[in-house]
Amino acid sequence: GLTLISNTKRKIKNLLDIGCSNGLFLDLVKKKNILTYGIELNKKEYKISSRKHHAECKSIFSYKSKKKFDCVTMWDVIEHIKDTNKLFNKISLLLNRGGLFFFQTTNAYSLASIILQEKCNVFDGIEHTNLFSLKSINFIAKKYSFKIKKISTVISEIPIINNYLNYENPYLGKNKAKKILNIIDEKKLHKKLLGYKFQVILEKQK
Asked: At what angle do helices 134-143 and 84-94 cross, to 10 degrees?
């Protein structure tokens, strides 16, 4: 994620990580001489992250900042937030013009989710309150005045798919094949944006 953001060639002076956990990602960011800020609801994780970073124990919707950010990140958090409309409005307010919003989230139309369907871990009705597709990301970007800088996928789930196709438990099987039906490898899968998770970089336009 940090490599993807760096490759946009935008100068980043400060960064806010929403759901920063124990600050592991912020530790990497800080090494790049970037001012690090975080939000974390888990009190134990927050206490760890606050030792090295400007972290607060609160939700994104109650978070207030006098400064605006060059970059806001969310690692596997956005799918747990119910009100996407409220979230994107808040992030837009927190970003400088031209600022970057990076998020990683599950892909509702990954090859694994298409093949496994209800057996795929993507469809967790308890924790995953919002699911994203290429179509919905394009719609959101346009609605909230963001330009898509980069969309890629990670985690092929090829072993899991092969377990399922071999009539085994998808997540407990032992298939180690590196291709699906000896046709689809990781490179082809990610080229078609069919990986298990999206990594998205949006740029604020207004």
From this structure: 50
Dist CA 46 CA 51 (whole Å): 9
Q: What is the pLDDT of residues 14-32, one digit of tens each?
A: 999 999 999 999 999 999 9
Kindly compute the dihedral angle of the four CA atoms of residues 14, 20, 22, 27, in this order, to the nearest 10 degrees.
Answer: -30
Closest of 106, 125, 109, 127 to residue 117, by C-alpha? 109
The phi and psi torsions of 130 (rounded to 5 degrees) equal -135, 135
This model's pTM is above 0.90: yes
Total length of the chain:
206
**In the block, which residue shows the tokens 């000896």?**
182
If you search the block for the tokens 């919002």, which residue do you land on? Answer: 130
Q: Is 160 left (phi over 0), alpha (psi -120 to 50) or beta?
A: alpha
Q: What is the pLDDT of residue 76?
A: 94
